[in-house]
Amino acid sequence: MREGGRILAAAMAEIEAKVAPGVTTNELDALFAQRLAEAGAEASFKGYRGFPASICASPNEVIVHGIPDDRGLAEGDIVSIDCGVYFKGFHTDSAWTFAVGEVAPEVQKLLDVTRSSLEAAISQCSVTARLGDVGYAVERVVIPEGYSLVREYAGHGVGRSLHEEPWVPNYGPPGRRDKLRPGMTIAIEPMVNAGGEATETLADNWTVVTADRSLSAHFEHTVAITEEGPLVLTSL
Predict the structure, then answer these.
(1) 116, 120, 155, 160 — which has fewest CB within 10 A?
(2) What domain range is 168 assigned to?
(3) pTM (2 decimals)?
(4) 22: which residues sit within 8 A by CB, 6+ positions away?
(5) What is the 3-state secondary structure (H, E, C) of the chain?
(6) How many C-alpha atoms does 111 have within 13 Å on its Cβ side?
(7) How far apart are CA 81 and CA 68, in angstroms?
(8) Gap between the Cα atoms of 162 and 83, Å rounded
(9) Do residues 207 and 200 touch, judged by C-beta distance below 8 A?
(10) Domain of residue 51, CATH code
(11) Is the torsion defined by CA of 43, 198, 110, 76 positive or negative?
């Protein structure tokens, strides 16, 4: 999983470098697929439950599961890229929200807070903690800033299958839910809305948007639980 995670992280870094006004999410999808093919890996999402692309590309009010298309990104947009790698029998999963060109300060704050909430959650991943502690760490960062947390979708176990137990919600209470154990690998993925928490699924049965069409940010890492502390597998 560490090897697969490095492949994913390297491909994500190339996507980040390519994100710019005028670039299409289909181009980002093609880049990711090409880099995985060169590394001898496969895209976890391609064909998963019928999903048609290698990445999920979710601009602006799209929370998750956006399908890449030929529309160019615009200056001031944000776009969340969620992707998975299948390598040597194991999956890894990661997501990042990128600014397209220059964004307004309040938009950058949404990205910064969401990323900070992921970092806070990872810091709780010790063998003395429970999943409620991980979710509560996200909640403590996000809610005081006036944002809302998506509750219908959450993180998950990941390994031989893309989605495994346990369910990893982005809220507490602390001290509750499954105990973290050495050898567990979980995907932690805060999804944070600038407006309300309600969601809506569009007619394609994939694309999930904020019900009030407010902006949404999404950050995710695959994390291994070890006796020595958390090991982020999807980072360079």
Answers:
(1) 160
(2) 2-232
(3) 0.96
(4) 72, 73
(5) CHHHHHHHHHHHHHHHHHCCCCCEHHHHHHHHHHHHHHHCCEECCCCHHHCCCCEEEEECCEEECCCCCCCECCCCCEEEEEEEEEECCEEEEEEEEEECCCCCHHHHHHHHHHHHHHHHHHHCCCCCCEHHHHHHHHHHHHHHHCCEECCCCCEEECCCCCCEEEEECCCCCCCCCCECCCCCEEEECCEEECCCCCEEECCCCCCEEECCCCCEEECEEEEEEECCEEEECCCC
(6) 20
(7) 10
(8) 11
(9) no
(10) 3.90.230.10
(11) positive
Q: How far apart are CA 141 and CA 188, in angstroms?
A: 15
Tell me if 217 sits within 8 A of 78, measured CB to CB: yes
Tens place of pLDDT per residue across the chain (236 aa):
999 999 999 999 999 999 999 999 999 999 999 999 999 999 999 999 999 999 999 999 999 999 999 999 999 999 999 999 999 999 999 999 999 999 999 999 999 999 999 999 999 999 999 999 999 999 999 999 999 999 999 999 999 999 999 999 999 999 999 999 999 999 999 999 999 999 999 999 999 999 999 999 999 999 999 999 999 999 98
